[in-house]
Amino acid sequence: MNWPAFTNPWMLAGLVAVGLPVLIHFLTRARPQRIAFPPFKFLVAACAGRQSVHRLRTVLLLALRCLLVLALALLFTRPFLKPNDAPANPQAARRVVLFLDASLSMRAVHQGISLFDRAQAEAAGVLRDLPAGTEAAVILEGATPRSLLPALSANLPALHDELVKARSTYECGDPAAALALAQKLLGGAGTIYIFSDFQKSNWEGVRELPGGILCRLRPVVTEAEDNVAITTAQLIPAAPVVGEPVEVVCTVFNCTARPREETVRLELGEFTRETRVALPPFGSADAVFNLAFPRAGSFAGKVTLPPDDLPEDNTRYLAANVGKSLAVLLVCDADATDWQGPPFYLGHALVPSPQAAPGLQLIFRRSQDLDRGVLETADVFVLAAPVTLTGEALEIITRRVQEGARLITFLDGPTAPDLMIAALAPPFQLQRAVESGSGEPVLTGPHKLFQDLDAADFSALRFHRHLQNQVLTNRAGDVLLAYPDGSAALTLSAAGQGAMVLANLPLTPDGGDFIGHPLFPALVHELLRAVRHDAAEHAVTPGAAWMLDVPTAGDGAVTVIDPENQPGAVQVLASGRNTRLALRAAKIPGVYTVKQGEAVVACAAVNVDPQESDTRPLALENLKTGAGSTVTILHDEEELAFAGKTRPLWPSLAAAAAILLGLEMLLPACWRNAGSAPVATAEKRRAVAG
Amino acid sequence: MEALRTVRIRPRGEAEGAFAGPHKSHFRGTAVEFADYREYSPGDDIRQVDWKVFARTDRHYLRLYDAERNLLTYQVVDKSVSMEFAGVVTRTASKLEHAARLAAAISYLVLREGDELGLSLVDTRLHQHLSAAASWAQLNRVLDTLGRLRAEGRTDLGAGLEQVFAQTKRRGILIILSDFLEADPRFWKAIDLFRRSRFDVMFFQIVHPEEFELPAVLAARFLDPEGDGVFNTEPDAIRNLYRRRFAAFVSEIKANCQARGCDWYLANTAEDVHGFLRRCFLAREGGP
Questions:
Q1: DSSP states of A316-349 as a string?
Q2: How far apart are CA A316 and CA A324, in angstroms?
Q3: Which of A31, A45, A51 is facing B219, going by the closest CB pair?
Q4: Are A36 and B84 inside 8 Å of each other by CB?
Q5: What is the dihedral of CA A145, A149, A150, A155, to 10 degrees?
Q6: Residue A372 contacts residue A396 (beta carbons within 8 Å)
Q7: Distance between CA atoms of B87 and B269, rounded to whole angstroms?
Q8: Distance of alpha carbon A602 from its chain centroid, rounded?
Q9: Complex ipTM above 0.90?
């Protein structure tokens, strides 16, 4: 706010009357009578300190009267405040965009009302107060910003109707896109009112506010939110098989400034488990549930926390499509019965016994025996060199891996370059084969394979040959083991929707002492587990279109049922043994069920974006302003109501004058009552006289 | 004076006057009321020997009688400047005038009974002392002294009473008329001196009504009559506090008097002297 201006400035001359009470005080005050008073000392003793109080009261009363006169004098001047952010171009004030954050975090409830409802009500108030002839638009900020009307419109009542019908979403906000849309609608000049919680996690992506535009920021958050959220819920492995030990790992995020302990509840199929998790302030912790699915099929469920200010992120949905078995295709041209050959070691490492690897189906094939059927059904490909693959086989494997299958390739021997499938973007480039008589050790890379470091002591192992290679820039994180010359010995990389392991390790006893070492089966098992462990949960969030691969049989129509049991629009992109479905953006989180006819063939979970769970607000002062833009922060509803408007001060002055007048009348009465008690009666005196 | 016609001032103890009078004395004399026997010792008046007892016992005993003596009354009037206060809005006789009227009335009562009366005027010291006498001429002297009384000097009742004590020959009634505003430890020591000598002590505390309530004026510059203190205030603003403080002072004087077995009376200058005295002395007659 700037300095006040006056409608009747000549009335400021009345300010000289401020001295009137002081003048009256000195002119009319009683002349003290001189009294020689014998009990003088009692007078002084009784009133010790009261004189200064009395003087203070007199000064206070005088000040009150002066202020009263001042308020009355100012009242007649009709003061008002001009808006300090008035746009230089008057036309800019007539082009307004109301930017309404409709992301998930705006569903948080403060004082019984959701942030979105508050923002919506305030935006509606601004819309109603816009002068006639103003062109306005309302943008809802979600995963994709949406303007309620396609362009700026002078039909404010229609826009108001659309605004009050708007609802908040479960989507993750994209303020940068919404601001870009606003700037496009305004065409370079105008005013944007932004109603948002200004979540740091979303808004720090905004490089700067649109240039040449007046931005009025209205943070609708009134208090720190009490919010705890489940930000991830993963099944490990992501596609489990019957009987296999499965971990459900949930990450719980505490978005408050105090440590807390929460109960996490898992409901998945017939499983119901609870555990408690201790959370540091603004930190995360994992809650882990162990289970094994008793049968194949689709299991849907959720992980929940007790409700808080933002209950929508306290539930995370899970969908487990449990397979009957995991088909591991081991491709090797060596004799499987040769106990010194790679198939023997790998086979025994992968399946030591049916009990040790439940649900795992090992299929052994020579490269020349590979057929389309086995290639299309395998879940994991293990290529043990030397292998000579046909171009068709390589093509199928590449496609399958990109679609989600896993690939473990052992590079040893002259065929290694052929197994470096370029389409899968291997993390290193082979250079040449090197040999070492004394043997080379391997060192652990930045990516840890084993959680338990004691289990990963490779220092005793020596390798007599390896393929020297060059790790690509920015792919060092994929390296699990490396040779002293910098060559990668073992890497784990994402490849399309699948994953790929490249093992630059000799697979025969003459290549080193790895084969036969107890670490070998452990490493193979851990690789299989790691390669099946999705790097991140395949997060499908509301507001984003998504695709789903489901196993189908026959030509029956495929439908998708949303969590509200309503069929959704679905487009079949590819069909066959697996059908690829393209789905429209989900509106609500939950478990979406895919049916073929009446049979449930798969289910998939849609969850809110964890970014929305971090509700810490951005420091608005740090928001960069664009060239020529003006930013005003409207801290309360009053500032919002008077934003851009001339603000009359007479109501405040009149209220002040009334209060001052009341005080001027009330205080002396109070002091009189406190200072002089009822007149002492004759009875009292007689009582003293005894 | 009609109001005081039936009023008599009687000592609580025994009179010790020089002449025979109506008040009981601890002196043994020759009056009619037998008191005791005492064995003869050389020098005793042989006329007091009880010969009937001698005849029966062959030993000489003297008959002892309770002698009735007249009453000695000493009046001490405080004539300091503080006694000059006569009020600002509620005008009455000054405290000194009121004290003088009380003293005159008491003098009349004493001399009417044929008792001896003395008068002392004190401020910081004993100013004037009329020795005790029992004649009507003494009344004239007392009234003359009281008539010429002027308030002056600061107050030191303790020092004045010590000097009065030195002037007294025999015990009797000590009547003090003052506002007791400067009742310091020395004063109370002097009172103790009198009480140890078995004086019957009566306090008449002279108070003006405005000393209870503060003068009803809007603003006042209060001056200390016996000092240089100045205090500007609006009495209405402090009346309640002052009233409580002054009542505490009066209660303190009363409590000190009662602790020493003295009689204490609050004399309001707005009250009639004779009615007040009648009420006081009748209460004293009926009292313990």
A1: EEEEEEEBS-EEEEEE--S-TT-TTSHHHHHHHH
A2: 26
A3: A31
A4: yes
A5: -150
A6: yes
A7: 10
A8: 28
A9: no
- CA of B248 vs chain A CAs: smallest distance (Å): 9
- The one-letter code for the residue type at B148 is R
| A680/B213 CB distance under 8 A | yes
- Between CA B224 and CA B234 the distance in angstroms is 17
A40–B222 C-beta distance less than 8 A: yes
Q: Could you say which residues from 119 to 148 on chain B have a Cβ atom under 8 Å away from some Cβ of chain A?
A: none
Largest CA distance in chain A: 132
Instruction: Please tell me the distance from the alpha carbon of residue A651 to that of residue B245, in angstroms, as a whole number.
Output: 49
**Binned average pLDDT, 10 residues per bin, chain A of 690 residues:** 77 84 82 89 79 81 90 87 68 86 93 92 91 91 91 91 93 92 88 92 86 88 87 88 89 93 93 94 93 89 93 92 88 81 83 79 88 89 82 90 89 86 91 86 77 67 90 89 91 88 88 82 84 68 86 80 88 79 90 86 90 89 78 83 78 91 88 54 41
| Partner A contacted by B203 (CB < 8 A) | no
Strand partners, A214: A191, A630
Decide: B69 and B20 in contact? Cβ < 8 Å.
Answer: yes
B245 interaction partners in chain A (CB closer than 8 Å) = 42-43, 45-46
Contacts of B181 in chain A (CB under 8 A): 38-39, 41
Give the pairing of strands B200-207 and A245-254.
Answer: unpaired
Per-residue model confidence (pLDDT) at position A85: 65
Residue whose C-alpha is closest to residue A114's, from A174, A160, A167, A162: A167
pTM of the model: 0.58
Contact B224/A at CB under 8 A:
yes
